[in-house]
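Worked example 4.2. Below are the chains of a multi-component assembly; read each line carefully before continuing.
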Amino acid sequence: MTNKTRERILHAASTLMEARGYNQVPVKEIAELAGVSEMTIFRHFETKMGILEALIQQQSYIPYFEHYFQTSLTFDVKKDLTDIAHQYLLYMNQNKVIFLISIQERGNLPELSNLITEANTNQLQSLLASYFDQLIEKGILKPFHSESQALIFLTTMFGYFVTTTISINHFLQDQQKMFIENYVETFLYGATM
Amino acid sequence: MTNKTRERILHAASTLMEARGYNQVPVKEIAELAGVSEMTIFRHFETKMGILEALIQQQSYIPYFEHYFQTSLTFDVKKDLTDIAHQYLLYMNQNKVIFLISIQERGNLPELSNLITEANTNQLQSLLASYFDQLIEKGILKPFHSESQALIFLTTMFGYFVTTTISINHFLQDQQKMFIENYVETFLYGATM
DNA sequence: TATGTTTGTTAGTGATAACTAACATTTTAA
DNA sequence: TTAAAATGTTAGTTATCACTAACAAACATA
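Applying the procedure described above to all four chains together yields the following structure tokens:
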């Protein structure tokens, strides 16, 4: 039962903190939603911060983008970029709670922001850039600065992620496919005639 | 002296809240930075929320993008888009504190998010879309769905804004010019040969 | 059944922070 | 100079909340 209790607590914490952040969710309320007593939480996690740390442990799964880039590329640019965009959003949505809390607690836990931005930019960006470099060599892409273009591509997807994350219904989740489709098209072929 | 005191308080509050948000900044600390006593703050603003409201009043200047679109367009697409991007970032940076707090307080003050996203998407997006429509008619742009393309363009700039806002030095401020330059280029002419 | 493990209950501690009250001091302007 | 307005000081109230202690109840498993 211990394990299920722990999961219920983490799930409750995640739900509440996604909506209201870390500081604004009292432990008592997490306990209520999880259907356990407050004491149980402290016995499991010691401190409130312990809950957050467990959440980070549980949610910030660092995907092997390396693996993806080594195995799943087809060098059909359109297909690849579309897929990368979806993969990226999948990853970011899994880290949504942590992302939101990292903004909120940026004063207290600056390391948290890095968890997101590290993987976000550093890792993915350089992988994407070297993919672009390969395409440049193949004569498919223009000989631009690949790092800059990777940054542009990921920045757009990041903007999409943030928009869907902070505003409830600003644009709907099932518009995602269309957004990516349109964006990849423009990114590759431009808006001009 | 009243006016200067008020300004000093608001300035101190803005500085501290930009770094650490609303809840995590005690009134006492705002008083210290402003060089006034805590009582003075309460005499000026009644409650802590009063400070935030005054900040919103002061900072969320809603720019007349309409005016801009009516007067400053040259229909040199590259030039226009570059300029629009800069204008947009200027606007967002003026609302930076409010943007950050709106994420943090999204549980308590959901209306706040709208201040940003309203002007952000609704107003600017449709203005940009109709600009695109004109360019499509002129045969300069492809006959795509203008709203979608406007969304893409603004989403990228929004992503850039959020990145520079939440991570201290993720990419530097003076890279802005280059980022916009690169992005406009790719947006217009695409990444492929 | 017996025993150890997990959970519940209750009452309380200590820290923080928003906000108030009352009075003293300084500053401003006529 | 003098009165009013603005600010400072201090001491305290109240509420919230993380966290603890001690004991009781439920539960699991051997």
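Take a moment to check your reading of the output against the notes. Residues 65-189 of chain B form one domain. Residues 185 and 191 of chain B are 9 Å apart (CA to CA).
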